[in-house]
Each structure stands twice: as structure tokens, then as C-alpha cells.
Design a protein that fits this description.
Chains A, B: InterPro entries: Isoprenoid_synthase_dom_sf, Polyprenyl_synt, Polyprenyl_synt_CS. 2 copies of one chain form a homodimer. The first copy, chain A, has 368 residues and is mainly alpha-helical. Chain A is built from 18 helices and 2 strands. Chain A is globular, with a radius of gyration of 22 Å.
Chain lengths: 368, 368
């Protein structure tokens, strides 16, 4: 084990565990009045609790924590538990996003388990209840996602931090949710339109990954520590750049990733028909070079349910030959450099600067 | 026109107009950053704005306003606009509830217009986009409802009232949303189970109408005026009782109402198969009196799409003969009396006491 940075604190080393602990406590507290009111509420409350505690990298609370630490938040101070509550609430927003996303995408499984709408539909069928099991599953997923969104606010605003601090983070907190929903909407719209535009794909990455996952969590954490405008601006710039770089690396892994490392089938993004920047770039270059046959082949793999190994191989070769891979790799490098420059200019309290730098490097170079 | 009470203020007389004005201002403010980010967001933002401004009795803001006035809130003071913003935010929670409810119920129209999921499905079909129009409509409704829920918090917490006041109303604000969602869930579950229990029907009324529509809005308003525990307890008691009485009156109108007055077809609750207290009481009494044939006839009308005039007539007669109508009328009277006693004990600042009394009388005696 690498020795921890001298200035680091035990919580720094075990953030996902701490976040899970705090979530467990607050989900119990939030569920209690509902369980007491009516035993039937145990079902949706348990479903949400299991979903939230069942996994996830706790990325958003982690960025919020480092935003707070970087702006001088002191984990040995009296407010640490309250701060952990505030940043852990971001996992409930993410739970809403995922439960509703699975419903909108008609996905059957997540993390190897049935999605919420599938599971509630199954319970309806098993019990032999009246009406449509599918519609009951839909209702379960809609309401559990709504509950997650409502409870996120409850955790954030009632975490016990001084009201003035919460008020200073409120604009970022509210903007984050609008950006998340806007990103989801643009994603749905872009798929429906069959858009091949690089701009549209990039815009989704900017909202869903950069703003919602990185920049706003950093912003919220820093604001909760009382950061000034210039520190927040530098962190947001870092988040905006590194967030898109993360997503571009994801796009690359979605086509070129090794199933043994990513845990997903080879070429999974092609099979799912994802409108990524990588793919949009490939089609853009094919058009610019009048290579219509190649563009047609590339399009034919998109959303193809029975994608063969040969198809994946051919798609990879096309994306390399057309120059899309080079372009995306170049963009990742540029975004990472500009992100790290913004980070260096922020002058964060250590070890936050070092840790964010390490997160940035790991995520843009990662293989899974 | 009846002269206004000497202590009344112009806003007291035109609450729905004031609420609509404030909602318009804030929906514009909240939508602006999204419109600027991406022109496509105009669609969901406009859809939500039109939905919220398109109608509704503004019941929840009205109760919150009178809770505030009753606890000494002064409309000539400097905080009135901020208070109107806080109480108007309740309409956004209601927008989420209705948009998601229409989706869960597969309702095609609301207030004579297509529901959100139907409208977004239509746009998809008209544009000839890829994928399922129905699934696109579903996504539109899920995201627009989520946006309403997120914006409700934004309006409430950023209304500009002193942070300590918001903090004192926060527990009620959060409880209200859990109660609304719990009520919706119990409603879906009760329909699926085909429950005939009076208790289950009453529990839904307590959550959806009493707590969510009356008691919590009164509580929030009073807390925003700095009310003490005993005043809040009296208002909540009033709300809990009168809210159920409202719903029982609604149940009566849903079977016995005159279409010319209610604006809905005769016996509409029967056609929709609603599991009301009235109906559950009818079945309970039929069982107690071993009148199986009557119970079977009553059940046969529930959810019957081609309900005839004769069916409605027979159902009405059955509910009267079985004693369900008398029982429900008695319960309305008792609840109204106990609500008015709680109101009298609250010692509200006038004209709030008088107005709440008038609202209670009108709603429990109303014909539409």
C-alpha cells in the first residue's frame, strides 16, 4: 500500500465506504415515517435503498468532497459528518437519473439485476394483480425515481450545515439538476432524430458528464467550503474539460475496449446504437472525404442486434482509417492538458489538487 | 359583489391571479439558462410552462397563503412577493404529480388537451423520427415531471425569504413530497390489488388530499410566518379532517354529480373503476348484510367502459339502499365539525380564520 499523503485524512482514503455509510443512515431516517404510515411503503422504500446501496462508484460525492477539501474544508472540523450528508445526496439524484433512464430506454437489467420497472412488473405478474403488469412496473419506476429526487433535496437542505453555506451552494445545486435533465432530454432527442452531428454529441457530453458529473459537484463542494469566485471558476473549468475527456475515453472503450477489462461485450456502443462523438467524427470525416461506402458500412453497424466479431473489427478499422480515432485521442489530450492547467491555476489546498490530478489522469487513460 | 372583510388585502381577493403571475415570472427565469444552452430545450420548457399556467384552482398555494396569513403574515410587509414565490412553488409539485399520474394511468387528455406523453408521442410521429413514438412520449413526460419537481425546490429555497424561516418550513416541505408520492403509490397498489377495503381508500385520501393538498400547505405557510407548534398542530388537524371531507364530497359527486355542474359524465368514478371510500363502504355493508347479489352488481359497474344511464341509476340506488351514502354523508358532517372546531381553537389572525371556514363549508357542500 502506498503511504497516504502527509496532509490526507482517513476519510480521503475511503470515500465510497463513507458515502455508503451516510446514505444508509439517511435512507433509513427518510424511509421511517413512510414505513410507519403504511406497511406497503416498505416495497418502494426498500427498492430505492437497495438500488442506492447496491453499487456505483460514488463519483459525484467524490468530486464534491474534493471540491470542499480543495477550498479548505477541514475533515477534522466539527462539520464533516454534515458535509458528507450534503455531498452524498448527489447519489440520490443519480438514482433518479438511472431509474428513469432505464425506464425511458426500456433496459431490462442494471448491474446484473432487473431494472426497477422490470422488477415491479414481475411482482405484479407473480401476485396475479389486476391490470397491466407493464404499466404497474412503469408506475413503480416513475414514483421511485421521483422519491429519489425529492429525498436528494431533503438530504442536502437538512444536512445540518449552516444555512448561509447551503444558500451559497444552492445555485449550483439547482443548476446541476436542470443540466442533468436537459442532458437526458437532449440524449433522447438526438437518438430519436438519428442525429449524426458532432456538436449534438458533444453537447450531451458537456451536460451529462462534464457539468452534471464533475463540474457541478466540484462547484457545490467548493461553495460549501465558502470558496471565492475565482477558485470556483477554475474548478468548473477543470470539470468541464476533464468531464468531456472522460466521456470521450468512454466512447473509445465502448468500441475498442477489451471485454475482459470493461466487463461489457466488445463494441457494445455500436450494438446499442449510441450517437457518440467518436462515431459522429467518423461520419463527418467520411462525408468530407466523399467515402460514402464507408459511411454506409459504419451506419449499418449502429444498433445492429447481431453484431459479429467481424463487424466490430471492421468498424474499428473504419474509425481508425477515417481519422476519427486520432481526432478523439487528440481531443482527449488537449482537454486533459487544459483541465490540468485550470487545476494548477486554482491553487487548491492539498491533497485535493494532487488527488484531482490523479483522478483526471486515471480516468482519461483508463482501460475500463 | 360582497364587500371585502375590513382586514383583508387586495391579494387575498385574487390569489389565483397572483399565483399565476408569480409562476410566469419564475418559469421564465428558470427556463432561461436552458433555452440559452440549447434551442431544443424550448420544447420541454414551454410544455411545462403551458401546463402550469394552463389552469388549476391553485388550491395548495391558497391554503399555504392562508396558513401564513393566519399565523400573522402581513401582506403589506416587505416579504410578500417572496412569500408568494414560496407558496406558488407548490403548483410545480402538483405539475409533477399530474404529468406523471397521467403517464401512469395512460390518460389521453387533461383539461381538454392532450396529456404530455400523448403530445410528445404525437410530435415524434409527425416528425417521422426513429424508434417508438410511444417511448418518446413516455420520456418527455418523465423528464418534464422531473423538471417540475426540481424547479419546485428551486422556487421554494431561492424565493428570498430569510434562511431561518425556510429552515423552519423545510420539514413540512419535505414531508409533503414524500406524502404525495406515497399517496400515488398506494393508489396504484390499491387499484392493482383490486382492494375493496374502506381503510385503504381512506388512507389514500389522508395522504393525497388531506396531507398533501391541505394540511401540509397550511403547515408550510404557517411555518413561514414563524407560527408556534400549537398553531401548526391546530391547522394540521383542520387540514387532515377537512381534506378527507373534501375527498368524500368528491366521491359523492363522482357518482351522484350532475354532469351539467361537474363537467364530467354521470357516474364517472364508476366508469373509471375508482376505489373510493363510498364504494368500499357499499361493498362492506353488502357483505355485512349478506347481500351478495347487490355486491356483484356494484362490482360489475366498476371500470365498465360502456356504462349505461340505467347502470348509473342502479349503482346510485344500491349505494343509497346499502346505507353507504348515509355513512359517507355522516362522515363528511363529523369531519367538517371536527375541522371547524380545530380551526376555532387555532385563534388565527383574521381574515384567515373566516376564509378557511368559508373554504371548508364551500368545498364540503359543493356540487361540482
Amino acid at each position: 500500500m502506498v503511504p497516504a499523503h502527509p496532509a490526507s485524512h482517513p476519510i480521503d482514503e475511503q470515500l465510497p465506504t463513507e458515502v455508503a455509510r451516510v446514505l444508509r443512515t439517511h435512507l433509513t431516517r427518510l424511509g421511517e415515517p413512510l414505513r410507519t404510515t403504511e406497511p406497503s411503503f416498505a416495497d418502494p422504500v426498500d427498492a430505492l435503498t437497495d438500488f442506492v446501496l447496491g453499487g456505483g462508484k460514488r463519483l459525484r460525492p467524490t468530486f464534491a468532497w474534493w471540491g470542499w477539501r480543495g477550498a479548505g474544508g477541514d475533515p477534522t472540523g466539527p462539520d464533516t459528518e454534515q458535509l458528507l450528508c450534503a455531498v452524498s445526496s448527489l447519489e440520490l439524484i443519480q438514482a433518479c437519473a438511472l431509474v428513469h433512464d432505464d425506464l425511458m430506454d426500456s433496459s431490462d437489467t442494471r448491474r446484473g439485476a432487473p431494472t426497477v420497472h422490470i422488477e415491479f412488473g414481475r411482482r405484479h405478474r407473480e401476485a396475479g394483480w389486476l391490470g397491466s403488469a407493464e404499466q404497474y412496473g412503469l408506475a413503480g419506476a416513475v414514483l421511485i425515481g421521483d422519491l429519489a429526487l425529492a429525498w436528494a433535496d431533503d438530504m442536502f437542505y437538512r444536512c445540518g450545515l449552516p444555512e448561509a453555506r447551503l444558500a451559497s451552494a444552492a445555485p449550483a445545486w439547482h443548476a446541476m439538476r436542470s443540466e442533468m435533465l436537459a442532458g437526458q432530454y437532449l440524449d433522447v432527442l438526438t437518438q430519436a432524430r438519428g442525429s449524426e452531428s458532432v456538436d449534438a454529441a458533444l453537447r450531451i457530453d458537456q451536460l451529462k458528464t462534464a457539468a452534471y458529473t464533475v463540474a457541478r459537484p466540484l462547484h457545490i463542494g467548493a461553495a460549501l467550503a465558502g470558496a471565492d469566485e475565482s477558485l470556483i471558476a477554475a474548478l468548473r473549468q477543470f470539470g468541464a474539460d476533464i468531464g468531456v475527456a472522460f466521456q470521450l475515453r468512454d466512447d473509445m472503450l465502448g468500441v475498442f475496449g477489451d471485454p475482459a477489462v470493461t466487463g461489457k461485450p466488445a463494441g457494445d456502443d455500436l450494438r446499442e446504437g449510441k450517437r457518440t462523438v467518436l462515431l459522429a467524427r467518423g461520419l463527418e470525416y467520411a462525408a468530407a472525404k466523399n467515402r460514402d461506402a464507408e459511411a454506409r458500412r459504419l451506419r449499418s453497424y449502429l444498433g445492429k442486434a447481431e453484431l459479429t466479431e467481424q463487424d466490430v473489427f471492421d468498424a474499428r478499422q473504419l474509425l481508425v482509417e477515417l481519422g476519427a480515432v486520432d481526432a478523439v485521442e487528440r481531443q482527449i489530450t488537449e482537454l486533459t492538458e487544459s483541465a490540468l492547467a485550470a487545476l494548477a491555476s486554482a491553487g487548491l489546498a492539498e491533497p485535493a489538487g494532487e488527488r484531482l490530478r490523479a483522478l483526471a489522469m486515471a480516468a482519461t487513460k483508463r482501460e475500463s
